[in-house]
C-alpha cells in the first residue's frame, strides 16, 4: 500500500516518507488503513506542520492545494474594479438583449420548447457572459469566441432538451 | 473546576489528534521510540492501534510544537524522544486527568 504515500505533499514525504513507509509496511492492508492514510494525506495538505526552516524552495506541488483553498476562500481570482465594471456592463447589456429576444419570441409562440429554453438558459448565459468578459478578456479572440459560443450553445441545447422532454409529459 | 494552563491547552489545539498525541507522549515517557514501536506500545497500554496516517499527523504536530524531537538514526525508522517542554505538557495533562478521575471516583463513592 506504499503507493498511498504519493497522496502526501512532497515536503511531507521528504521528511516522514521513509519512516511512514516502514510503519505502513508492518500493517495489514485493509479499508480502514487506506482511509486512515487518506485522512492523514488530506490533513497534511490542509494543515502542513513542517516548518520552512531551511532555505529550500517550496515546491509548486506543495503549495498548489493551499493556494487553491486560499483563492477559493478569498472569493476567486482577483478582479480590478475596472474589470468588474466592464464585465457588469456587458452582463447588463446581454440581459437587455436576451429580454428583448425572449419577449419577441414569446409573441411568436410562447409555448414552443425552443422559446422556453431561451428563458431558462438566460440566467446561466448571463453568468457565462460575465465570467468570460471578466476572466478571458485578455485571452486570444479565438479562445473567447470558442468559450462563449460553445458555452452558450451547449447551455441552450441542454435547456432545449429539458424543455422538449418536459413538454412530452 | 480544573483550570487549564498553557501547557495543558497545548494538546487541545490538536483537534482530533489530541488523544493520539497524548498516547504518543505517554509512550515516549519511557524512552525514545520509533513509529512502529510506538504503535505497538500504544496498542499494549491503551488497546488502541493507531493507523500510520493518525500516528504521523500527531507526530508532526508534536514535533512542530517542540514537544518531541527526532533522534539521528542510520536506518529508516527514525526514533523520537520527549523534549523538556513535552514532558511538562504531559505532566500537566496527566495531573489534570487524574484530578478529574479522583473527583469522579469520589462522587461515585458518595452516590
Topology, please?
The complex is a heterodimer of chains A (169) and B (111).
Chain A: H1 10-25, H2 31-46, H3 60-73, H4 81-109, H5 113-135, H6 141-167
Chain B: H1 6-12, H2 18-28, E1 33-34, H3 35-46, H4 52-64, E2 68-70, E3 79-82, H5 84-110
Antiparallel strand pairs in B: 1-3, 2-3
Helix pairs in contact in B: 1-5, 2-3, 2-4
**N-to-C series of helices and strands of chain B:** HHEHHEEH
Oligomer kind: heterodimer
Number of domains of chain B: 1
Helix content of chain B: 55-70%
* CATH superfamily annotation of chain B: Winged helix-like DNA-binding domain superfamily/Winged helix DNA-binding domain
User: How many helix segments of chain B?
Assistant: 5
Order of helices and strands of chain A: HHHHHH
- DSSP strand count of chain B: 3
Summarize the structure.
The complex is a heterodimer of chains A (169) and B (111). Chain A is an all-alpha fold.
Please describe what this structure looks like.
The complex is a heterodimer of chains A (169) and B (111). Chain A has 169 residues and is mainly α. Chain A folds into two domains: 2-73; 81-167, no CATH class. Chain A contains six helices and no strands. Chain A has helices at 10-25, 31-46, 60-73, 81-109, 113-135, 141-167. The longest helix of chain A has 29 residues, at 81-109. Chain A starts with 9 loop residues before the first helix and ends with a helix. Mean pLDDT of chain A is 80; it is low at 53-60. The longest helix of chain B is centred in the last third of the chain and has 27 residues, at 84-110. Chain B has a three-stranded antiparallel beta sheet. Chain B is mainly alpha-helical. Chain B has a single domain (6-103), classed as Orthogonal Bundle (Arc Repressor Mutant, subunit A). Chain B is elongated, with a radius of gyration of 15 Å. Classes of the chains: A mainly alpha (169), B mainly alpha (111). The interface between A and B is medium-sized, with 24 and 19 residues.
Amino acid at each position: 500500500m506504499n503507493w498511498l504515500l504519493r497522496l502526501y505533499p512532497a515536503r511531507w514525504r521528504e521528511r516522514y516518507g521513509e519512516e511512514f513507509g516502514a510503519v505502513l509496511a508492518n500493517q495489514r492492508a485493509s479499508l480502514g488503513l487506506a482511509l486512515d492514510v487518506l485522512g492523514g494525506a488530506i490533513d497534511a495538505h490542509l494543515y502542513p506542520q513542517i516548518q520552512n526552516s531551511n532555505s529550500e524552495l517550496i515546491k509548486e506541488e506543495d503549495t498548489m492545494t493551499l493556494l487553491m483553498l486560499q483563492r477559493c476562500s478569498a472569493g476567486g481570482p482577483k478582479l480590478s474594479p475596472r474589470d468588474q465594471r466592464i464585465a457588469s456592463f456587458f452582463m447588463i447589456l446581454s440581459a437587455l438583449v436576451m429580454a428583448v429576444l425572449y419577449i419577441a419570441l414569446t409573441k411568436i409562440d410562447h409555448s414552443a420548447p425552443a422559446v422556453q429554453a431561451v428563458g431558462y438558459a438566460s440566467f446561466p448565459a448571463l453568468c457565462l457572459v460575465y465570467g468570460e468578459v471578466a476572466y478571458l478578456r485578455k485571452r486570444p479572440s479565438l479562445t473567447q469566441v470558442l468559450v462563449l459560443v460553445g458555452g452558450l450553445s451547449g447551455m441552450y441545447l441542454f435547456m432545449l432538451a429539458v424543455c422538449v422532454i418536459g413538454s412530452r409529459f | 473546576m480544573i483550570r487549564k494552563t498553557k501547557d495543558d491547552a497545548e494538546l487541545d489545539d490538536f483537534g482530533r489528534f489530541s488523544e493520539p498525541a497524548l498516547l504518543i507522549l505517554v509512550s515516549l515517557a519511557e524512552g525514545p521510540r520509533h513509529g512502529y514501536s510506538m504503535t505497538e506500545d500504544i496498542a499494549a497500554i491503551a488497546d488502541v492501534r493507531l493507523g500510520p496516517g493518525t500516528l504521523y499527523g500527531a507526530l508532526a504536530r508534536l514535533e512542530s510544537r517542540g514537544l518531541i524531537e527526532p533522534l539521528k538514526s542510520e536506518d529508516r525508522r527514525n526514533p523520537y524522544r520527549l523534549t523538556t517542554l513535552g514532558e511538562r505538557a504531559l505532566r500537566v495533562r496527566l495531573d489534570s486527568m487524574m484530578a478529574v478521575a479522583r473527583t469522579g471516583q469520589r462522587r461515585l463513592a458518595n452516590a
